[in-house]
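FORM 7B - TANDEM STRUCTURE REPORT

SECTION 1: FIRST PROTEIN
SEQUENCE AND C-ALPHA CELLS:
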Amino acid sequence: MISPIEQIVFGLLILTGGVLLIPECLKAQSQVPEHIILTWEDDPMTTQSVTWRTEKKVPDPVAQIMKSTAAPYGEGHAKTLPAKVQSVENEGAKAYYYSVTFTGLDRGTKYLYRVGSEESDWSAWTQFSTASKSEDDFSFIYLGDIQNDIFSWGSRAIRAAYDHAPDAAFALFAGDCVNDGHSNDQWMEWFDASGYRTSMMPIVPVTGNHEYDHLPGLDESTLSVYWQKQFELPSNGPRGLEESVFYMDYKDMRLVVLNSTAALSSAQEMQRQSHWLQSVLADHSQKWTIVTFHHALFTARDGNHGDYPDLRAAWQPILEKHKVDLVLMGHDHVYARASKQTKTITVPEGEAGPVYLVSVAGPKMYGVVPERRWMDRAAVNTQMYQTVTIRGDLLEFRAYTVVDELYDSFDLKKQPGAFNKFVENISSKTTPENRFPDGKSVRSKK
C-alpha cells in the first residue's frame, strides 16, 4: 500500500520530469540555531548579549557560557541561562528569535559559549573576548551602506574589514544594511555575507532609511520587523526609539547612536532626539565622543534626496558645542571627510572641530558634484571600510578600499583647553582621488 505522502512524491516526480520539487508546506523546519550575533543590551564592559533564530520553535532554549581554556569539553562547568523568545511572522513564514545577555563578566577575559537546546540542536562552541582595562588601546570597524547585492558584492567589504582588523572591539554599520528592512531574504543575505564573524565580534547597527519600509495594510513605513528581534541593543534612548537611539560607553569613548530617519519624520521627533543628544553629550567623563547616524549632515552627491538642512540646523550646533570628535554617517554612497565644516565655532589652523565622515561599503555608487563639494577628501565608485583606533590621547582614523589600499588617514590628538590637533596623513592635494572610469567625479548620464 502506497502512503498519501508517497503518492504526492510520485505525482511530483511525474509532473516535473523526475526532478523532485518539494512544496514549502512539506519541508521540515529546522531547529538548528542560525543568525547568531553578538550585540550589547547593557554595559559593554561587563556584559555580552547574543541573539539567534530557528525556523521551528525549540523547547527550553538556552545559552551556555564558561571561561575559555585550551582544553576541549568540560560542558559541566558552563553556566546555563534561559533565553527570551520572540517570533516574527512575515512574508508567509514564521521564525523564532532567542536572546540572552551574559552579565557579571570579567574584564579582559576570553569566554566560550553556545546556544540552542538540550532537546534539539546546539550551535558550535564559539569564543569572544571582553574589554580589558579602560586605558588600554582598542579599535573598531566602521562600514557605510551595503544595501544592494548584499551577498554578491557587499560581502567582500565586510570580510575585508574583518580580515584587516580581526581583533577589533566591534563593527559599526552606519545604516542601510539591506534595501528593504522587512525582507527576510535580504537579511539572510546580510547574515551570509557577515558569516560566522558576527558570532565572535559584536556589532553596533545604526538604522538607515532602508531599515524602514511599508508593511501590507499600513500607510506609513515602519522599522524592520526583524530589527528589535535580531539585535539586543540599549534601551536608554527616548521612549519609543529604544534600540534605535542609544549610547554606550566603551573604555574611554562614549558612542552615541541616533535615528536620523525618525528625526526627519517630523519637527517633534527631531526635537526629542535633539534634547536627548544634548543630555548625553553634556553628562559624561569619557575622553572621546563619537556620534553616528545614517543621513549625511552635508552633501554633494549627484542623486536625489540628499540634502537635509533641518537635520543640519538641529544637530550641528550641538555637536560643536560639546566638542564631538567624530561623526560617522552613510547614505550618500560616496566617501567623504571634512574637519573644518563648522557653523558656531572658529577652529585654528592645524586643529579640528567635529570631523565628519561618510562612507559606502556596498556596490551602489553616487557621484560628487564639484560645485557642491564640502569635503577635504572624497572617493567615488569605491567600496570602502574604515578603522578607528584609540590610544589614550590619540585617535587614528584609517580608510581602506576593499582591495586593502590605504586611501585616507588622519590622526586627532587631545590638547588641554583647545580643539583636537589634526594631523592629515593623506591629502587630496598630493594624492589623487578615486573617480569614475571616465575620469569624472559625477556619474555619466545614459
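SECTION 2: SECOND PROTEIN
SEQUENCE AND C-ALPHA CELLS:
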Amino acid sequence: MSGHFDEELSSLLPFSVHRCNSELCLPHAMYLLLAALIFNCLFIVCLTAPQDHVSTEEVVSYSRFQLWSITPHNKEGCDFLRKIQRDYDLDVWKESRSGNSTMDLLIPPDFQMELKLRLADAKISYVVTIRDVQTVIDNANSNVTIRDEISKAQGHNMDWNNYHRLNDIYDYLNYLEDSYPQIVKLITIGWSYEGRPLYVVRISSASSPDTNPAIWIDGETHAREWISSALATYIIHQLVEVDGNQGLLSNVDWYIMPMINPDGYEFTHTKNRLWRKSRSRPGKFCRGVDLNRNFGYKWGGLGAGRNPCSETFRGPAAFSEPETAAVSEFIQSKSSKIKVFLSFHSFGQLLLLPWAHSHPAVYPPDYDELLELAKNAASKFVRFKFSVGNTVELLYTASGNSVDWAKSIGIKYTYCVELGNIGIYGFILPPSLILPTCEDFFPALKVFADMAATMTN
C-alpha cells in the first residue's frame, strides 16, 4: 500500500518530497504526517466549497460607467454602432433600428476616451444621459424602512413608493390569500433554479373558478426590470383590495405571476443591479439564460444568443430552465380560458405584437385585431405615450419569447409591454416613478378585461 500511496501523496505536495536516506529528505513519518494534513485540508475545502447554485460573484460597481445615447444618421452609421457594440461587448439599453434612431449603450470608464475619438472620426453624435450609473443606482435602490407598528397594522410591508425585496413581495401574496380567501388563491407552479417558489396569484369572484375567460399577466422575466414586478403587484393590490375595481372581476378571472425570475431579481439586489438573466449554470464560465429567449416557439432563431455569456443566451434547449418549463406547463393547462396575455418588461413605452422571430417582420393572420385592441388600450395612457406595433419593427428580433409562444398555442391577444423610461433612467427607474407608472397603466386593463369577457369560447 505504502509505495503507490506515497507517490500519489507526493504529487499533491507544494514541493518535491521523496523517501530517501539523504539528510536533505524528510523522514518518512514526517512526510506521511504532512501529506495527511494536506489531504485533511483538501477534504474540508471540498465540504465547505460553494454549491453550484450558490453565487460566489463579487458585488459589481458601476461607478463612472456612463449611458450614452448615440444617433447615427444613416444605415452605415447604424452598422458602425453595431460593430462598436460587438467589438467592446457593450450592454445595449436601446437598439437602433434605422438611421436617425438612437442607440443607448452602457460605456465602461476604460473605453470612454477611445469611443469618443472613434465616434468623432465617424461624425456620429452622442449625448451622455447618465454620467455615473452607480450614483443613479444608489439613489434608486434605497432601503425600505417602514416602522414596525405600521407594517404590523397592515399585515405586510408592501407599498409602491419603494422597490421591495423578494421576501416582502412573497409575504404580501401570502397575506392576500389569508385575508381574501374567497377571491385569492396562491398557486405554486414550480421552483426556480436556486429553489425559490414560483407563484401565480389567481383572482376570481366566480363561484366556480376556472370557468370564466381569463387574463394572464407576468413580470420580472428580466431581473433588472424592477418596475415590471412592481406594476404586477400593484394590479394585484387594486383587484383585490380596492372595492371600486370589483367590476373587473365580474366576468373575468386573473392569473398574475409578478416574479418569473426570483433568483435573478434577488441577485440584482445583492450583487449586480443590472443583471438580466436567470441564475442557472448552462455553461462552464458564464451563468444564466435569457428566459425570454427560452420558450419553445421558433426557439434558437434570430435575436437569441448561442453563446452562454451572451445577454440574450437562449439556453441549451427550449424550456431548459425550470422557470420557463413551469410557466409553460401552467399556461398550457389554462390556455382554453386565457384570452389575453400581457408580459411586462422595461423600458421603451411600447406595446409590442407578434411575431418577433423574423426580419423583415411577419404577422399573424389576425394582426389587425390585435393592433386595434392594443391601440384602444394605449389610448388610456396619459403620462406615458406608447408606440404600438410589431416587435421587430419597433424593437428587434427576439426568437423564443413568451408572447410569440403564447400566441402559437392559441391565446388570441398576446402583448409584450415595455414600460416607461422618462428619457434618462433606462432600467433604473427611481422609486418616485413607481406609482405614476402604475396609475397610468391601470385604466388600460379595463380595455383588455372588456374584450376578454366577450370571448366565452
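SECTION 3: OBSERVATIONS ON SECOND PROTEIN
The domain at 66-131 is CATH 3.30.70.340 (Alpha-Beta Plaits).
The CA atoms of residues 407 and 414 lie 6 Å apart.

SECTION 4: SIGNATURE
Preparer initials: ____
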